[in-house]
Amino acid sequence: MRALEKAYGSTRALNGVDLTIPTGQVLGLLGPNGAGKTTTVRILTTLLRADSGEAWVAGHNVRTEPDAVRRAIGLSGQYAAVDENLTGFENLYLVGRLYGRKRAAARARARELLARFRLEEAADRPAKGYSGGMRRRLDLAGALVAEPSVVVLDEPTTGLDPGGRLDTWKVIKELVADGTTVLLTTQYLEEADHLADTIVVIDKGRVIASGTADELKAMIGGERLELVVASAADLPATRQVLREVGSGEPAGDDQARRVEILVDTGPKALIEALRRLDAQGITVQDVALHRPTLDDVFLSLTGHGAEFVDAHGEKR
Predict the structure, then answer these.
(1) What pLDDT sits at residue 198?
(2) Is 291 in contact with 213 (CB distance < 8 Å)?
(3) Residue 55, class by beta-carbon neighbours within 10 Å (0-12 exposed, 13-18 middle, 19+ buried)?
(4) Is 43 exposed, middle or buried (0-12, 13-18, 19+ CB in 10 A)?
(5) Cα–Cα distance for residue pair 186/37, rounded to 1 Å
(6) Extended strands (E) in 46-116
(7) Mean pLDDT, the chain, integer
(8) How far is the C-alpha of 58 from the C-alpha of 23, rounded, in Å?
(9) What's the half-sphere exposure (Cβ side, CA atoms, 13 Å) at 25?
């Protein structure tokens, strides 16, 4: 896609977005709520028309060849597209028939995917009795019925328990191993780090960075020094010490008495910080040195934190 723009009234959802996804790879699209991720997905899947710019999927222009694009893709959106009155098997069988598969082939593919997503025991129960996580898995299975060459996954693991998330990761890896191209939008930083060959970070409708996870982390350099002090009264002095040994403004959590900052010299900065704090009689209860995270990248690029979700499903 090239120079895509889309506005809703006075709000510019996309402002000249460029993306390229190499065949057989996963591109992770990261950004906070409202960054333009879902608008991008809707344009690429022909559900929405861009105001300007061009986009191609599997060699087909989304504006002039929408039917060909739809035949080439599988889509799992943020909300499970499941017919609650049909069983899990019937949902997948129906998708197979709509794609033109013969009855026997549609039945076999449905059963294969039900097993792949651990839904065999619930296969013949109406989907209205499924949990939210089961519906998400059934929806993702539906996106794979036609064995598409391009799969678009818009926050596919939202609402899944850790086991369901790991199962989904396994399926995505299998798809890529078979040559499928995947566009993945996610709020789970760990997910992007684990799955994506390339990550694109967007904010306010613009691409602000792209590269592998390691390349993005290398952009900001250094590591993150984190300290927990024994007394909240020592937080101001601790922040001042970290300003002197690190770069930028310290962050943290006053209630947890935690302060952190990016440092360029790693262990040397840690040792120097501890020496200065000890000289001031400040007791440190915990200390850690972390490699930069994708959250650090976002903070460095935009000047504000992103509302992402960690591995435990907690927003941060």
Answers:
(1) 96
(2) no
(3) buried
(4) buried
(5) 9
(6) 52-54, 56-57, 60-61, 73-76
(7) 90
(8) 9
(9) 13
pLDDT in tens, 165-214: 888 898 899 889 989 999 999 877 788 889 999 999 898 899 999 999 88
Is 285 within 8 Å of 229 (Cβ atoms)?
yes
**DSSP output for 119-130:** -STTTTSBGGGS
Q: What are the tokens at 68?
A: 């060909």
Task: Supply 282's token pair.
Answer: 């400040």
The answer to whether the beta carbons of residues 24 and 35 sit under 8 Å apart is: no
Q: Residue 29 and residue 209: Cα distance in Å, rounded?
A: 11
* Sequence-separated (6 or more) residues with CB below 8 Å from residue 14: 4, 5, 6, 36, 39, 40, 43, 50, 53, 205
- Per-residue model confidence as pLDDT tens digits over 226-248: 999 999 999 999 999 999 999 88
What domains lie within the chain, and their CATH numbers?
2-216 (3.40.50.300), 222-291 (3.30.70.100)
3-state secondary structure of 292: coil
DSSP state letter for 282: P
Residue showing tokens 């889309």: 6
- Please name the amino acid found at residue 54: E
Q: Report helix, strand or coil for 142.
A: helix
CA dihedral for 265, 268, 270, 272, sign (positive or negative): negative
Number of Cβ within 10 Å of residue 12's Cβ equals 16
> How many residues are present in the chain?
316
